[in-house]
Design goal:
With about 450 residues, the protein is mainly α. The protein has 3 domains: about 1-45 and about 60-110, Ankyrin repeat-containing domain (Serine Threonine Protein Phosphatase 5, Tetratricopeptide repeat), CATH 1.25.40; about 120-130 and about 145-250, Serine Threonine Protein Phosphatase 5, Tetratricopeptide repeat (Alpha Horseshoe), CATH 1.25.40; about 250-355 and about 365-415, Serine Threonine Protein Phosphatase 5, Tetratricopeptide repeat (Alpha Horseshoe). Helices cover about 45% and strands about 0% of the residues. Keywords: ANK repeat. This is Ankyrin-3.
Length: about 450
């Protein structure tokens, strides 16, 4: 009789049922279509359950699963059986946060450094769970703390991106490198920023060695494109569109990499640790975090960076920095992407650059003009390498609402293009009547003053 189906279904039942099936001849190494054995399912059950008290989890769910796994192992279940994705039961137990299951498997010969199809060891998965005891026990039994997956990501990379602060602290104390680079030259800090993991960023910046000394973390390290951790934090909204789940073939399980709501505090925290002379950081294409936030449509982060730069007395001219293929400002980038909210956030530099900071305390570069009106006016006037101001670009892109916003903020409507056309020429030729009307009305009001 083929017991595999009945056995797989019964694995979630009390351990007595599991033992009864084994006594009646069920194969402990039977495989399903994904090549998973019953031992895998026994280890997979342990997951944090919403609304379940930790006491119930620790004294009911986990002991029952351990009993089932032990019964299987005593009946010669293979502790190193691999599924189609090359994961072992220990991978599953490590991701399930169960210290009891991990210890049981290690006691019965599970390979601590077995790798799955992504090159990840059980310790990689344990590092994402925020359960330091599992990490500690795996290392104590020979798991490599410097193991890298196929993307050259270390345990600390995965712990940082998932916000596992306890595991970050444990790994740092055991000597994990805080500045290790993955295949794309991303450090744990920059990866945490990309995944919008405030907890991971905070833990890395505050981590201490086993002797209590601060770690030498490079906050300005650039990735393969020169982007710093702050560039990553500025693009945090992109994580909403990324299914940041690590899954295995067959029955899937997530390991704390769910898409997160945007956390603007991550950018502010990173800026606190920056040197004034390095503001604003630029990537290989010359883009600042303002450019990145504008590109991804993150108005909240733009506002946060303007406020924080003011509080830290960073030069307000940083928002004027040009970059990208067209050597444009962040405002022009927001315009070209048609993102009204990002445009409005950047235009708030008038109010935000002067809030709470006396002029005599501003850097010398900012003291020769109003840190609000002067910067805003320059932001409206800056041209890209095609000679276009943000308003000219908005007219060209037929962004009516953005044109109106820029005009209301005082943008010069007399500017033109390299071919000699003015804004009204372009609006008329494109058939954008609302834009043409706005330009004419604004010009009429100027003449009547």
């Amino acid at each position: 009789m083929d017991w595999s189906a009945e056995f797989s279904a019964a694995i979630s039942l009390p351990s007595q049922t599991c033992r009864s099936l084994l006594k009646n001849g069920a194969d402990p190494n039977a495989r399903d279509l994904d090549h998973w054995t019953p031992l895998y399912y026994a280890c997979r059950i342990i997951k944090p359950v919403s609304g379940v008290d930790s006491f119930v989890d620790g004294f009911y769910y986990q002991p029952r699963a351990r009993q089932r796994a032990k019964a299987l192992i005593l009946h010669k279940a293979d502790a190193n059986a691999r599924g189609l994705d090359s994961s072992t039961p220990l991978h599953c137990a490590a991701a399930s946060r169960s210290l009891g299951l991990v210890d049981l498997l290690l006691e019965h010969g599970s390979e601590a450094n077995a790798t799955n199809f992504e090159g990840r060891t059980p310790l990689h998965l344990a590092a994402t769970t925020n359960k330091a005891s599992v990490v500690s026990n795996l290392i104590a039994t020979g798991a490599h703390i410097d193991a890298k997956d196929q993307a050259d990501r270390t345990l600390l990379h995965l712990a940082a991106m998932s916000g596992a602060a306890e595991c970050i602290n444990e790994l740092i104390k055991r000597g994990a490198s805080p500045n290790a680079q993955d295949r794309f030259r991303g450090t744990p800090l920059s990866v945490a920023s990309i995944y919008n993991s405030y907890e991971g960023i905070e833990a890395l910046l505050h981590a201490r060695t086993a002797e209590g000394a601060p770690i030498p973390i490079d906050i300005d390290a650039g990735n393969a494109r020169g982007g710093t951790a702050l560039h990553g934090a500025a693009s945090a909204n992109a994580c909403r569109a990324i299914k940041a789940f690590y899954t295995v073939k067959g029955p899937n399980f997530a390991i704390n990499l769910e898409p997160r709501e945007i956390d603007v505090e991550a950018a502010g925290l990173l800026m606190t640790y920056m040197e004034r002379d390095s503001w604003p950081p630029t990537n290989d294409s010359g883009r600042t975090p303002f450019h990145v936030a504008a590109e991804y449509g993150n108005p909240e982060i733009i506002v946060k960076m303007i406020k924080k730069a003011n509080q830290l007395h960073f030069a307000p001219e940083g928002i004027l920095r040009k970059g990208g293929a067209y050597s444009a400002t962040a405002l022009s980038m927001a315009v070209s992407n048609g993102n009204l909210n990002a445009v409005q956030a950047l235009l708030k530099v008038r109010q935000l650059a002067t809030t709470g900071t006396p002029m005599e305390r501003l850097p010398p570069a900012a003291s020769d003009r109003s840190a609000g009106d002067g910067i805003l006016q320059r932001l409206l006037e800056e041209r890209d390498n095609e000679g276009r101001t943000p308003l000219a670009l908005a007219v060209e892109c037929r962004e009516t609402t953005i044109v109106l916003e820029l005009v209301n903020q005082g943008a010069d409507i007399s500017v033109g293009y390299k071919n000699g056309q003015n804004l009204l020429h372009r609006a008329a030729s494109d058939g954008t009547t609302e834009i043409a009307r706005a330009i004419i009305e604004n010009r009429f009001q100027e003449l009547m003053r």
